[in-house]
Specification:
about 325 residues; six-stranded mixed sheet; 7 helices; alpha+beta
């Protein structure tokens, strides 16, 4: 029975059912700050050089290199983790090719999800066009994106992003170029503390204890973008409901986390990444393991670090 549960369900149950019992899917409501949402949507369009901020590819790359905060990083749609230096280098390498402006990102459905002081979490749907066999530019790929913003010197700026593909590219994934610089933790002690928090909430050895821990450690506005169900809406309530069903059936979700790394700190907000390997059945009924790269957001409330949200992007390259 336990094996069947692991094979047919995943952490937080992207299918929306557990043991034949429907789990309510609560639609997350945008954070109630319409004015800030407008401000951040404008930042998002500037970030992507879209709408009224359309630029040549070269000008856009140069603008982003100044617009992103110094600790900016992104999990791109292939699951590669790139810091600001690597993002700028990767995009700059394409400048001589002068990509057509129509291949630029097309963001839509922007929603402000949560605000913690000078830090904000939002999502959008970003789509990309490419040239088809008839010589027309058509939408071919798209992602639901976790977009993170910080207020820096009085202005909101992009801090990080996680692209979770809704529509995968049909082209083979190309390995990303990574910096040879050795990564150092911005705060080894905090990294250790948050890694333990992450390990504890993912611990499946005692599911009832895990449910109680999640109920305590997730913020009220916690949400997650799942790599295997990017259009779904997983919030704190649905997470607790689904994990409670696992606990009732003495079954552990088939997701294991490792490779925790603290990426950046902004006062009482910290960003980290890890790798989460999901065990599930494919369409042929075979058991497969699929790795995902996660962005994890933590905020400090009343002196305690809590989990504020995450995005999981399938890793397509070795």
């Amino acid at each position: 029975m336990k094996l069947a549960w692991i094979l047919t369900l995943s952490m937080l149950a992207g299918c929306g059912q557990v043991g034949g019992v429907a789990v309510p899917v609560n639609q997350p409501t945008p954070y109630e700050n319409s004015e800030l949402e407008k401000v951040l949507w404008d930042v998002d369009e500037q970030w992507l050089c879209s709408g009224p901020y359309t630029k040549s590819y070269k000008d856009c790359v140069e603008f982003r290199s100044q617009y992103w905060v110094d600790q900016f990083f992104e999990v791109v749609s292939t699951g590669d983790l790139l810091n600001k230096e690597e993002m700028v280098a990767t995009q700059s390498a394409r400048i001589p090719a002068n990509p057509d402006p129509r291949t630029a990102p097309y963001p839509d459905a922007f929603k402000l999800r949560a605000v913690y002081g000078d830090f904000a979490m939002a999502t959008d749907h970003t789509y990309f066009k490419s040239l088809d066999k008839n010589g027309n530019y058509t939408f071919t790929t798209g992602s639901k994106v976790l977009r993170l913003f910080v207020k820096d010197r009085g202005a909101w700026r992009p801090a990080a992003a996680g692209l979770v593909p809704i529509i995968l590219s049909s082209a083979p994934a190309s390995p990303a170029e990574h910096s040879k610089n050795v990564r150092s933790s911005p705060d080894p002690q905090l990294e250790k503390q948050l890694a333990e928090l992450d390990r504890a909430w993912m611990d499946s050895s005692d599911m009832k204890r895990r449910v109680a821990y999640v109920s305590k450690v997730f913020t009220d506005q916690w949400f997650e973008i799942l790599g295997w169900d990017p259009t779904g809406n997983t919030n704190r309530m649905t997470a607790i409901q689904v994990l409670s069903k696992f606990a009732e059936n003495n079954a552990a979700p088939g997701v294991v986390a490792d490779q925790f790394q603290l990426q950046s700190i902004y006062g009482d907000v910290a960003f980290a990444t890890d790798r989460r390997t999901r065990t599930s059945k494919n369409e042929k009924g075979q058991m497969v393991k699929t790795p995902h790269r996660s962005i994890l957001v933590f905020v400090k409330q009343n002196g305690e670090w809590k989990s504020a949200g995450a995005s999981l992007t399938r890793i397509l390259t070795p």
